[in-house]
């Protein structure tokens, strides 16, 4: 459920997106609020400026949180973002341990406003394969250290 306090911070994320446009960047903005509602960090999309397909604001904030916050604090944060996170960003958000995301536009609404936003092709994937070979580095890495040699 979105509260009036959420709406205030969501409007700020939309303002970050609007400011991005004035800088020549894509119109997406996000911010991360701590457990007390204070803004910890904000970012906008810099994919073109940075020539980096991963420079979405949601992923930038998830990476920041993973580096800068302990897991307990991260779990009590809320990300406010102008558009629903894409699959790449959603994965980063999950891995960073953030507690909640509040977004303004749903992906379907974005595609309605900008049809090219939904024009991504499907990439075929084949697998699994070579289990016995692929498991070796995984098992080596996660194997508990033997004490006393």
UniProtKB/TrEMBL annotation:
It comes from the Bacteria. Residues 4-121 form the CMP/dCMP-type deaminase domain. Pfam families: dCMP_cyt_deam_1. Coiled coil: none annotated. SUPFAM superfamilies: Cytidine deaminase-like. PANTHER family: CYTOSINE DEAMINASE FAMILY MEMBER (PTHR11079), TRNA(ADENINE(34)) DEAMINASE, CHLOROPLASTIC (PTHR11079:SF179). This is Nucleoside deaminase.
């Amino acid at each position: 459920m979105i509260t009036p306090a959420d709406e205030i911070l969501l409007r700020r994320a939309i303002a970050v997106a609007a400011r991005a446009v004035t800088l020549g960047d894509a119109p997406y903005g996000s911010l991360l609020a701590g457990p007390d509602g204070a803004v910890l960090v904000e970012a906008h999309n810099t994919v073109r400026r940075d020539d980096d397909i991963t420079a979405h604001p949601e992923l930038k904030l998830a990476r920041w949180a993973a580096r800068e916050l302990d897991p307990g604090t991260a779990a009590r944060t809320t990300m406010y973002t102008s558009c629903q996170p894409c699959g790449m960003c959603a994965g980063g958000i999950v891995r960073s341990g953030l507690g909640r995301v509040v977004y303004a536009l749903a992906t379907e609404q974005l595609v309605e406003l900008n049809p090219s936003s939904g024009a991504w092709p499907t990439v075929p994937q084949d697998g699994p394969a070579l289990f016995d070979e692929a498991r070796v580095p995984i098992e080596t890495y996660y194997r508990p250290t033997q004490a006393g040699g």
